[in-house]
Amino acid sequence: MGFNQAKKSILIALKNGEYQHEVRDDYITKNLLQTGEISAQDVINIINASCGTDHNSSSHHQVSKIDVHVIRKNGWYIKFYFVDDDGENAWFISVHQ
Q: Which of 89, 48, 50, 47 has its CA nearest to residue 66?
């Protein structure tokens, strides 16, 4: 999945509240969306301002068929993936500065 589709799908997930958070030991400092220190609307605003040059992707460290998307914009680092190829089942790994 390329940037445009990933952006569209993650924005829909955020707007609809249809996303989950990957459980990690360092979630308190690495996932401010999960802790409530940043709102879904704030993340939407950051992602809306992003373009293809702010994005990269790589395989998930445990499930190589899953693409993990990273958006770096205005000092923010947003890392997420989709379990399904159609952009559903969105999972956030990190949302932090």
A: 89
Domain ranges, residue 11: 3-96
Q: Cα separation of 81 and 74, whole Å?
A: 21
Domains identified in the chain, total number = 1
Report how far Cα 60 is from the mean position of its chain's Cα atoms.
13
85: nearest Cα among 62, 65, 69: 65
**pLDDT tens, residue by residue, 6-56:** 999 999 999 999 999 988 776 667 899 999 999 999 999 999 999 999 999
